[in-house]
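Quiz preparation item.
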């Protein structure tokens, strides 16, 4: 927690929240354009649903309406003139995560800014294709299950399990995304084992935070509306993302603290070995 405060994580969490909120729509527009090129326009809606699946209903509902309104049209024009700006703004969310994680792991970015920006754009494009593939799985899942039931009718009692497919896919996206974020986005490289503590704590606190935020909005539905008026929907989403960003950085600081403690312990263990080989007359 001391590292969290000393690294200005509260301020960086607000930067992450605003960057993610402003990059969400350019990212979905890019997904829509890619889906339109491949002739699978409905996948854009599925990708949006997957992203918002883990959000509390009180927050995801109003945003989902705006998202689906934007994604109703065919956005193939984005792949021509607007592709550069779309990719740039969509990659800003990745860059905000890089700033926070570099501080959390106490590393300094030595690469040129344009190289890190290209890396962020590559993450955005790769994430778009991965989400499209998982959305296709969600779309085809019910058809595949019905085909299985025709051949094996005895599985009919398990028909309700197919409803967990969406939740399972959303969970996989979150877990894999967290692991890749901690391993690849900040400078340097970390082992898979070294990032697991922060990822586990982040998932647990995100779960608690989601339940807590849902409970607050359910029992105090007019709290934000009385304060922010017509901007209540945007402010609720921004505060929710701010909370998620702070928890995400706390997970990074936990990993950074553990790694720093291991380095200090290794340094103390090696120090006697160095003094043993020194002889004095």
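Solution:
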């Amino acid at each position: 927690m001391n590292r969290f405060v000393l690294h200005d994580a509260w301020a960086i969490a607000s930067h992450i929240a605003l960057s993610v909120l402003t990059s969400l729509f350019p990212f979905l527009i890019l997904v829509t354009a890619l889906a339109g090129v491949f002739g699978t326009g409905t996948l854009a809606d599925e990708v949006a649903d997957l992203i918002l699946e883990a959000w509390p209903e009180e927050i995801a509902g109003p945003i989902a309406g705006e998202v689906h309104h934007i994604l109703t049209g065919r956005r193939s024009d984005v792949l021509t003139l607007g592709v550069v700006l779309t990719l740039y703004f969509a990659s800003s969310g990745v860059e905000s995560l890089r700033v926070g994680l570099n501080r959390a792991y106490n590393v300094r970015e030595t690469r040129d800014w344009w190289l890190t920006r290209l890396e962020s754009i590559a993450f955005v494009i790769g994430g778009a294709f991965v989400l499209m593939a998982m959305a296709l799985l969600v779309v085809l899942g019910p058809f595949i299950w019905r085909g299985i039931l025709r051949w094996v009718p005895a599985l009919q009692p398990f028909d309700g399990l197919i409803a967990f497919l969406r939740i399972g896919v959303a969970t996989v996206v979150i877990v894999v995304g967290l692991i890749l974020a901690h391993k690849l986005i900040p400078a340097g490289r970390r082992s898979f084992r070294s990032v697991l503590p922060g990822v586990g704590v982040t998932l647990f606190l995100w779960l608690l935070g989601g339940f807590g935020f849902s409970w607050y909005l359910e029992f105090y539905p007019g709290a934000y509306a009385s304060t922010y008026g017509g901007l209540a929907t945007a402010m609720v989403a921004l505060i929710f993302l701010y909370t998620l960003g702070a928890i995400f950085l706390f997970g990074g600081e936990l990993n950074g603290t553990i790694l720093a403690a291991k380095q200090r312990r290794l340094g103390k263990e090696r120090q006697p070995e160095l003094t043993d080989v020194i002889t004095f007359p």
